[in-house]
């Protein structure tokens, strides 16, 4: 169908109205193809007219000349419980030169779920009146999926928020750069942000949004804090929310979980970039052995068309915690320090075992061999094997970040830094310069450590280091897997830092292909040192350096046996015993080089 202008009066309006529909299901979408071409063709918009609401809701707009081509529009209608109509309005200019046309109008997934004769299984819910059988994850999510409202009956209001009456029990973080804004209708900037909320699907409903226009600056953060929750079993607490990320300069939305109040927590999920003009549902399964809190963080992009929306946030299988999260102080190694030590007679040069109060030499702390019965001498150290699957950094820490105060300082969030990532969280196109799968599990859900080159500038470097390692054995080596793919990859170095002296042990630069590559670095006997991974940023964001499966092999120092060496062993000058097969093999197995002496 096309529009023909019949006179030259200014601002003529042509209207095309749909039949009246009784209602629509929660997954309802409308699509059509449109043509809007000509120098003064004018604008077009699609409006939603709901019975009982005087104000129409704008669902879609075409701004003037869109070129000599057919374009597809996809509009999310969602659950509409009341009768409604659609009106396509075309506004022409005074001197009409152009053609507007529409074709192939399609409604998809607009029916309510069909009734079922039975509905069995712990993961299913049988609707009271419509007798539909729906997924139990849809229960108490602020959406009438049944069509009779029964899936939203008897829900705890403290576990859900649709923002129609404020923030509920969510709070704005005071440590971020600015706040989320509660709004109804479209955001103030065209071509970005929602036109309507998710709860009602109309301009009368409220939602939260993050404003990306000035005075907001690139990578400013707005953080929303959930109430506190009791510990939950293996994924028994479920967080559901709807997000809207539409605009050419949309940057990032992320969700964190924390069990300590003065920390940023660990990343559960994130999404980058423009996701289209639609509300998207996300479900996260949360496990915690301690009381916890959820943080939802929006990050501003490089421009004003980067608004992000949030709506219909709910929890299932979770219970509120009536208390406060603990706080911790950190040392430069990023580890918590107990307030008191057990009774002991240790000197300042000795380490106190936390459980027993036993004294051991300080050189025995962080040497890859537990000497305390509770292994406390190895607890504040780098882990011998790290695959990042428990979403921790295994004792590795970033010295530059540790020196900065504040959890949401712009310094800690906008600079080039190491962070945890996984392929499932990549935005479209990011897999060209960041790993799509990890090395441990070879899946998109596996975690790795990467230096995010979307931050920082050309030539910036970032270090991640171990706490001080007291002593290693003669065969000690570090084995790791690295991923360096992208058109502007910088470099990766492995350094050894002893006091104020730093030496380079291994280096790689440039594009190494879209696969994980194994690297091995011999350390041997060293004392009181740190291992540092240093990433250097290339000329653009198209090159993230990643590492995974970092292992310290054969690194525990030699032990002097409480017996004489056997006939199969060689007695080193320092009384260590080593296999005779290790003599004269160009390796300092004894640690004093006596196994390589020419006089043997």
From TrEMBL:
SMART domains: LDLa, MAM. Gene3D superfamilies: 2.60.120.200, Low-density Lipoprotein Receptor. Disulfide bonds join 140-155, 366-381, 565-577, 572-590. Keywords: Disulfide bond, Repeat. The keyword Transmembrane helix does not apply. The keyword DNA repair does not apply. Pfam families: Ldl_recept_a, MAM. InterPro entries: ConA-like_dom_sf, LDL_receptor-like_sf, LDLR_class-A_CS, LDrepeatLR_classA_rpt, MAM_dom, MAM_domain-containing. Transmembrane segments: none annotated. It comes from the Eukaryota. One of its GO terms (cellular component) is membrane. Residues 1-112, 159-320, 384-557 form the MAM domain. PANTHER family: APICAL ENDOSOMAL GLYCOPROTEIN PRECURSOR, MAM AND LDL-RECEPTOR CLASS A DOMAIN-CONTAINING PROTEIN 1. This is MALR1 protein. It comes from Pygoscelis papua (Gentoo penguin).
């Amino acid at each position: 169908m096309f529009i023909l202008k019949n006179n030259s009066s200014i601002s003529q309006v042509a209207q095309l109205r749909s039949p009246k529909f009784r209602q629509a299901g929660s997954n309802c979408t409308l699509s059509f193809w449109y043509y809007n071409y000509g120098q003064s063709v004018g604008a077009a918009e699609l409006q939603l007219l709901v019975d009982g609401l005087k104000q129409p809701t704008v669902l879609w707009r075409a701004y003037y000349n869109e070129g000599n081509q057919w374009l597809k529009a996809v509009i999310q209608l969602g659950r509409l419980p009341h009768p409604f109509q659609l009106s396509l309005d075309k506004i022409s200019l005074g001197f009409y030169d152009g053609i507007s046309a529409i074709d192939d109008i399609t409604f998809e997934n607009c029916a309510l779920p069909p009734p079922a004769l039975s509905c069995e299984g712990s993961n299913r819910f049988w609707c009271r009146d419509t007798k539909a059988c729906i997924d139990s994850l849809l229960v108490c999510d602020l959406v009438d999926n049944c069509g009779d409202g029964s899936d939203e009956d008897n829900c705890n209001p403290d576990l859900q928020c649709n923002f129609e009456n404020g923030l509920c029990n969510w709070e704005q973080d005071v440590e971020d750069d600015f706040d989320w804004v509660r709004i109804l209708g479209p955001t103030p900037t065209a071509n970005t942000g929602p036109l309507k909320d998710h709860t009602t699907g109309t301009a009368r409903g409220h939602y939260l949004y993050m404003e990306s226009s000035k005075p907001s600056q690139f990578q400013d953060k707005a953080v929303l804090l959930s109430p506190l929750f009791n510990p939950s079993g293996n994924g028994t607490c479920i967080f559901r929310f709807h997000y809207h990320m539409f605009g050419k300069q949309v940057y990032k939305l992320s969700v964190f979980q924390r069990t300590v109040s003065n920390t940023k927590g660990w990343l559960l999920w994130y999404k980058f970039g423009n996701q289209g003009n639609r509300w998207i549902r996300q479900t996260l399964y949360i496990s915690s052995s301690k009381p916890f809190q959820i943080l939802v963080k929006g990050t501003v992009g490089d421009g004003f068309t980067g608004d992000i929306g949030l709506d219909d946030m709910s929890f299932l299988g979770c219970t509120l915690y009536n208390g406060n999260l603990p706080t911790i102080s950190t040392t430069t190694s990023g580890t918590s320090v107990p307030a008191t030590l057990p009774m002991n007679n240790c000197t300042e040069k000795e380490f106190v075992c936390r459980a027993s109060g036993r004294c051991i030499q300080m050189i025995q702390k962080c040497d890859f061999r537990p000497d305390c019965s509770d292994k406390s001498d190895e607890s504040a150290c780098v882990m011998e094997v790290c695959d990042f699957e428990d979403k921790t950094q295994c004792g590795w820490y970033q010295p530059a970040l540790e020196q900065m105060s504040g959890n949401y300082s712009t310094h800690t969030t906008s600079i080039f830094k190491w962070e945890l990532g996984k392929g499932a969280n990549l935005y479209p196109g990011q897999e060209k310069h960041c790993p799509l799968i990890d090395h441990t599990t070879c899946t998109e859900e596996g975690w790795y450590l990467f230096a995010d080159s979307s931050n920082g500038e050309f030539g910036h470097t970032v270090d991640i280091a171990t706490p001080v390692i007291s002593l290693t054995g003669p065969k000690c080596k570090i084995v790791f897997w690295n991923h360096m793919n992208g058109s502007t990859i910088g470099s990766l170095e492995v350094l050894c830092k002893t006091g104020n002296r730093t030496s380079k042990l291994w280096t790689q630069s440039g594009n190494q292909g879209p696969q994980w590559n194994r690297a091995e670095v011999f350390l041997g006997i060293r004392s009181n040192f740190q291992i540092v991974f240093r990433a250097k940023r290339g000329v653009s964001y198209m090159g993230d350096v990643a590492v995974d499966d970092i292992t310290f092999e054969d690194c525990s120092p030699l032990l002097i046996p409480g017996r004489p060496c056997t006939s199969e062993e060689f007695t080193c000058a320092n009384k260590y015993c080593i296999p005779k097969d290790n003599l004269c093999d160009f390796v300092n197995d004894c640690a004093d080089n006596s196994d390589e002496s020419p006089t043997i």
